[in-house]
Design goal:
- The strands form four sheets. Strands 7, 8, 9, 10, 11, 14, 15, 16 and 17 form a nine-stranded mixed beta sheet that branches.
- The chain is of the alpha+beta class.
- It has six helices and 17 strands.
- The chain is globular and about 60 Å long.
Length: 309
């Protein structure tokens, strides 16, 4: 089953239109290999090899595969909160959020189909229930939409940044300045499609706020707030200031730590039905305690004492 889509974007760089648009992580690369895909630049239909200039208006008309065939799987979920419109979970590291290239089972979407039946697919046919993502090895708070109306409201909130997300991360090294802002565009790497990097001109604007909340030999524990939502944002921004995240196999392959030390600790949203402001807090996992036992204990005392408000 497929869905017809039309997408209008502005070229963020100059070059072949397919390569320029592939820098946007919201545009599936696979569509450029389909004969049915139509590309128009400034109103004129062109081939995928057509050279665009930065600022050109591009219209994409293509079909996107839906997840209507996803099979339910009995995968346990750690539920923080649930009502008839939303589910909030504490995602474990290692879980992929939704099926994609090379991954067709064991995902959060497979778990949702098992839990709610195929009705969950009606919330959004392309990414059922999913309004935001966490990387496979990132743990922590995620909200899932159970209805189409909830999906629309929450998707708009994430798009317009009408929410607050805070992470904790262990990074390499220590800081002279104990808090700061990282304001750098993020763009897909030209040399490795699985990676992203920062750029002064290309890519998408990204803003990250951090504060040091603990230090030990060779490492810092940070509270991190992302004020935009880009793929691998914290991981790329931290690497860009020479403080890559410990255990990051992609951006810090020589790390002595074996697990990704990044956790989505809290998420504050407006309920899609009532409009009530709600905050959900996840306990910092045990893997962080090996380096920062005191700080993790203090953070988790706050999590235990907090109630949804």
């Amino acid at each position: 089953m497929t869905e017809e889509k039309i997408l209008n974007v502005v070229a963020s760089a100059s070059g072949r239109v397919d390569k320029v648009l592939s820098m946007d992580d919201e545009i599936p690369r696979s569509i450029f290999s389909k004969k049915s895909t139509k590309i128009r630049v400034n109103g004129v239909e062109v081939k995928k090899s057509f050279p665009v200039k930065e600022g050109d208006e591009v219209e994409l008309e293509y079909t996107e595969e839906l997840f209507s065939g996803v099979k339910g799987e009995d995968i346990g979920l750690d539920v923080l909160y649930e009502d008839d419109q939303i589910l909030v979970i504490d995602k474990k590291p290692g879980m992929v959020v939704h099926p994609g290239a090379g991954v067709h089972s064991g995902t959060l979407v497979n778990a949702l189909v098992h839990r709610y039946g195929e009705e969950i697919l009606s919330s959004d046919p392309v990414r059922p229930g999913i309004v935001h993502r966490l990387d496979k090895d990132t743990s922590g708070v995620m909200v899932i939409a159970k209805t189409r109306s909830a999906h629309e409201v929450l998707a708009d909130a994430f798009k317009n940044h009408d929410l607050r997300k805070e992470y904790v991360a262990v990074v390499e090294g220590t800081f002279k300045e104990k808090e700061g802002l990282i304001e750098k565009n993020i763009v897909r790497s030209r040399s490795d499609r699985k990676k992203y990097t920062t750029s002064d001109s290309d890519g998408r604007y990204a803003l990250t706020k951090y504060k040091v909340i603990g230090e030990c030999t060779g490492y810092s524990l940070l509270a991190v707030e992302i004020l935009t939502g880009r793929t691998h944002q914290i991981r790329v921004h931290m690497k860009s200031i020479s403080h890559p995240i410990a255990g990051d196999a992609i951006y810090n392959p020589k790390s002595k730590v074996k697990e990704l030390m990044l956790h989505s600790r809290s998420l504050e949203i407006k309920h899609p039905g009532s409009g009530e402001r709600m905050i959900f807090i996840s306990k910092v996992p045990e893997r962080f305690s090996l380096l920062f036992p005191k700080e993790v204990s203090q953070l988790n005392e706050v999590a235990s004492a907090s109630s949804i408000s």
